[in-house]
Amino acid sequence: MADVTPPLDCARGVPCDRDRGDPEPAEGPPRLKRPVSDDDWSRGPAGAVSLVEYLDYQCPACQAAHPVVERVLASLPDRVRFVVRHFPIVSAHPQAQRAALAAEAAGRQGKFWEMHQRLFAPRGALQEDQLLSYAGELGLDLARFGADMADEGLAAKIRREKVLGVRSGVNGTPTFYIAEARYEGETGPLREEELKAAILAELDRNQRH
Question: For residue 136, is it within any domain?
């Protein structure tokens, strides 16, 4: 069983990682308020079971969870559609918003997933000059990248994702949804076998219906 231990203040589901200015999560069952669609950044077949992650690129728990998620996806090829949605917690992680913008700007040049991986690379830094360096490593048009980073449209998209996340029951990062239901794993580090078992259970339910 793979296990990683993030700092306690970034443990998955701990409300201290919620911005003080965020609206309170809506009452009711924790389900996605916006279903997965072609507007999302996703990997995997459209008809597969969806695994949605609300994340913050500066969050230590998200950084620790990243290789766990990658191993689960590798073990279930073509059976999972992995979706990333932004939830930068700027009160705790001041570089998270710019990192999310970097991923979105790279996406406009067809390199969202490459930037996503680079932002979570071991010892990856998120300062402005480093984000520009990553864009260069990926062969992006740097002038266009800089302009897109400054585009209010991308910032607005990130804000909308975060608001919808709060309404879906996100109160910390990372938060996962399998199909449209929030994954309620044990508090603390993300466990590979536990997450995989939950996905397999959903796959089994789909086969029986």
Answer: yes
